[in-house]
Design goal:
Strand content of chain A: under 5%
Helix content of chain B: 40-55%
Distance between the termini of chain B: 84 Å
Number of strands of chain B: 6
Number of strands of chain A: 0
Number of helices of chain A: 7
Number of helices of chain B: 8
Structural class of chain B: alpha/beta
Order of helices and strands of chain A: HHHHHHH
Oligomer: heterodimer
Structural class of chain A: mainly alpha
Shape of chain B: elongated
Order of helices and strands of chain B: HHEEEHEHHEHHEH
Radius of gyration of chain A: 16 Å
Helix content of chain A: 55-70%
Largest sheet of chain A: none
Chain lengths: ~160, ~210
């Protein structure tokens, strides 16, 4: 068995990875963290034994990098973002900043489950495979994430 | 009940407002990958008068030249050399420049350092002998077989030409059938004719 060229991994997954990473860490850090994920992946690529789920492998690296980024952010003094992407959001900014900031504040397990469900549009079976839990546990994490969001973001 | 409806509304809101794809800056990633020494093989597209080409290189030198789309070629390289191959034109600036010069008639001999890993054994020997055939010269399959000390191996020489990983640079276009007929060419016979004409070789009979 030999691995496909990494070029193919980039072509197939980079954009979706970036979108997923953005849900985990926000627009300001998405480029950086996506780059970190791909660098780590490229470094480890020749040792990849099983290329049947490269996307799952990348997403797992992304989850760890996102956790690292959040941990790092917690240690930094809070600063006001220069581009004004605070709770009010910018006029005309795409999406729902307040809601997705709340997603980013979820504990890691719920955050990644919510991202896999609502950004990557995965069925629960695949969310379970990506996270490494049962399908029931995947449903529970998404449900718990929604419950936590409901508490934070009143409709 | 209320909880359920709120959840459904919330789910709909999540779906509707999921962050869109931004444009991910692959170029910046590739530059960093290269700086970190992670790009084992770099490839790029090359324009030419004989159609679109592509080329790949390692730290050791030029590895492959191909015609058309690189897809199967990249798979080949991944299998034989390393799967850490990405599009990084900068690493092939010199190769591209020498190819341009050749096609424009300003260069007759390539000075590029070659990474010859993509061919081995007898085929590698044949290609080495072929590198000694100069611009404007031609040789027959049988000649070449004789030059590597195996005069009965003209069919194997044909295969070596067909599997030449470095066409144009290692000049398999300069190999003709005895009597002057064109023979074959991986890049198509039109390309072979163009290259021979470009080098001032009398057009073969067929």
């Amino acid at each position: 068995m030999s691995l496909p060229p990494f070029q193919r991994v980039l072509d197939e997954h980079a954009d979706a990875l970036h979108r997923h990473v953005r849900a985990l860490v926000g627009p300001n850090d998405a480029d950086d963290v996506t780059q970190e994920v791909l660098i780590a992946a490229l470094r480890a690529y020749p040792d990849l034994r099983d290329d049947s789920n490269v996307r799952g492998w990348l997403w797992t690296i992304a989850r760890h990098k996102a956790i690292d980024r959040h941990r790092h952010a917690e240690r930094r003094p809070k600063t006001v973002p220069l581009d004004g992407a605070g709770p009010a959001g910018r006029p005309g900014s795409e999406g729902d900043d307040e809601l997705w900031e709340a997603v980013r504040r979820l504990p890691d397990g719920q955050r990644v489950a919510v991202a896999l469900r609502f950004v990557d549009d995965l069925p629960y079976r695949e969310i379970a495979a990506a996270i490494g839990c049962s399908e029931g546990a995947a449903r529970q994490r998404v449900h718990d994430g929604i419950t936590a969001l409901r508490g934070e973001v009143l409709t | 009940m209320t909880t359920e409806r709120t959840d459904t509304d919330l789910e709909a809101r999540l779906r509707a407002t999921a962050p869109p794809s931004g444009r991910f800056d692959v170029a910046a990633f590739l530059e960093r990958a290269d700086a970190d020494g992670l790009v084992d093989v770099a490839w790029t597209r090359v324009d030419s008068p004989i159609g679109p080409l592509w080329a790949a290189a390692t730290d050791l030198g030029l590895l492959t030249v191909g015609f058309g789309e690189p897809d199967h070629g990249l798979d080949d390289i991944a299998r034989k050399v390393s799967p850490r191959i990405v599009e990084l034109p900068r690493r092939l600036d010199l190769a591209r420049r020498e190819l341009d010069e050749y096609f424009e008639g300003r260069r007759r001999h390539f000075d590029l350092v070659l990474d010859r890993r993509m061919s081995r054994g007898f085929r590698a020997e044949v290609l080495r002998a072929l590198e000694l055939v100069d611009f404007g010269e031609t040789v027959s399959y049988i000649d070449l077989a004789q030059r590597v000390g195996n005069p009965k191996a003209s069919r194997a020489v044909g295969t070596a030409m067909a599997t030449n990983p470095l066409p144009i640079v290692v000049p398999c276009h300069r190999v003709l059938r005895t009597g002057g007929a064109l023979g074959g060419y991986g890049g198509g016979l039109d390309a072979k004719r163009w290259l021979l004409a470009h080098e001032g070789v009398e057009p073969p009979r067929r």
